[in-house]
Amino acid sequence: MTAIERDLERARVASGEELNELVYHPAPAVLVALLDNPALDETKLTLLLSRKDLPLEVLEEIGVRKALLKNYAVKKAFLFHPRTPRLLGLRLLKDLYLMDLVQFALSPAAPAELKRYAEEQLVARLPQMPLGQKITLARRGPARVAGALVLEGHAQVMPIALDNPYLTEAQVLKALAREKVPTVVVQALAKHRKWSQAYNVRLAMVRNPSAPISIVLTFLPQLTVSDLRELAAPGIVPENLRKYLLAEVNRRMLASEKHAAREARASAGALMPKPQDQESAEEEKTGRERERGSDGDRGPQKTDDEA
What residue ranges do the domains of the chain occupy? Predict the structure, then answer.
């Protein structure tokens, strides 16, 4: 009998310390044989799933054995493994408890697709959640969940969600892109110390039809002329706001023309001689003329012999 054959036999009947040692065996076949061992309880199976180098074929074998995944701790360890097969992960994610689902969505090691699905599961559960859980998610939930809680506009939840460290500008813009955004959401964003300073957020608030005109007008001076012109095109914003946009564009253009005129006058003035320079030049010219005149008045001088 070869060494691998002996290990296979041991894997099916081992217990105690011997079983603990076999959990770290390098051969995938031996690890699969361990799954048939009656002594492999949920603690040992969770220990096996803690191996980051666990071969994919072992994970796939665990995934198809429903009896092994009845235990919640095993199911969680299986889902959190970085090599968990995609389809099995999608099927089991809905069974995670709320905060475990949050932890999975924030896990750097989790595949991106599974993380997105976990966020979707959390958002889908929001309507049935009590206020306390919503506040917890607003404080610690992933970006998409925080964005959904902002959009709900709940007075006790929204301010916490706006301060969520995982909330991204993309999620804020996604919320503002909705046609029917609660006015309280726009007002909260306009007053928020972080999001009110983000240029794209300001632009989105001006574009949003739910934004009060008083808030919009405070943002117009900070927008570029090109963006103002784009927003002032027919059909983009309500007509009563459009006239303010056009007025702001005209104000900027007049201010630009006046500035250009002042610059031109300043440049022209720099090229002209200064008054002191003119006076100095005239004095110097007068001095030279006097010297020539004095020489002419004296005439030719006589020599000693002529005297």
Answer: 1-95, 182-269
